[in-house]
């Protein structure tokens, strides 16, 4: 199918883009990487009157560390994060583990991280990581600039706190301390489709004890989620000896936390290829594996193979 007719502008500055969006009203769409928008337009599920192409605004194509946070501008492509060195410390490792699960290389070369927040899909890897890390979303609109915490940003499937006329200029993530362990595990039906379940796990370990766990759930509800109950179940627990995430005993703390995530945090919806029982089982298993990976990552950063730091 061909998209319905639309007007097109390509502003050179952020204020020009915001003006264009304001004039376009509710039927204006931002074009970033176009990897979601153009498909939706071809299927005529989205019919904008105006497309505001932001690809000629150089100030949006920046990746910077500012005051201990990573600021990702609206034109930074997914593919940038394939190298763990693109971002300092464990955050770079977490991003590089996650990004390879997003579609395939041509899509990652055009699609943007920030575009994922414009879209607000429950199966977005970036959005769940933003939930786990308490990231901030920076918006600029006709009324000025505002910042929304990730926990307040996602309202439901493809529904976010972004108001008509607003442009997301950047997303900011706190950098992670050097010995923080990170893991990201994804389960999907076939190559290149969205995650059935994916989990980001971030562990802060002190003297062999988990001081803080952060867990982000991908496609486990109608929006990206943080698994607060599973995190609480892990706080103060000994990290223990290395464990094989594929053969974890049922009473292992990570297996227990996985079940808590599945039963208490997640609110999965049945899908054609996965009923609720299957989905909850997958969430428990994938969460436990991501935690094992994060624990291993902590051990290697701390320079030992034992269960302590
Ligand atoms: C086959 C296929 C598989 C995919 N698999 C995955 C996957 O596994 N995981 C995943 O996360 N994504 C996946 N995607 C989506 C892809 O990663 C997109 O790149 C992603 O949604 C970001 O969109 P974009 O930059 O291409 O934005 P666009 O497509 O340009 O825009 C998407 C939406 O966000 C809005 N928007 C974009 N940028 C801004 C901004 N700065 N301010 C305000 N609104 C904005 C647009 O108006 C539009 O509504 C897949 C896509 C395809 C085609």
UniProtKB/TrEMBL annotation:
Coiled coil: none annotated. SUPFAM superfamilies: CO dehydrogenase flavoprotein C-terminal domain-like, FAD-binding/transporter-associated domain-like. It comes from the Bacteria. Residues 1-178 form the FAD-binding PCMH-type domain. Gene3D superfamilies: 3.30.465.10, CO dehydrogenase flavoprotein, C-terminal domain, Uridine Diphospho-n-acetylenolpyruvylglucosamine Reductase, domain 2. PROSITE patterns: FAD_PCMH. Keywords: FAD, Flavoprotein, Oxidoreductase. This is FAD binding domain-containing protein.
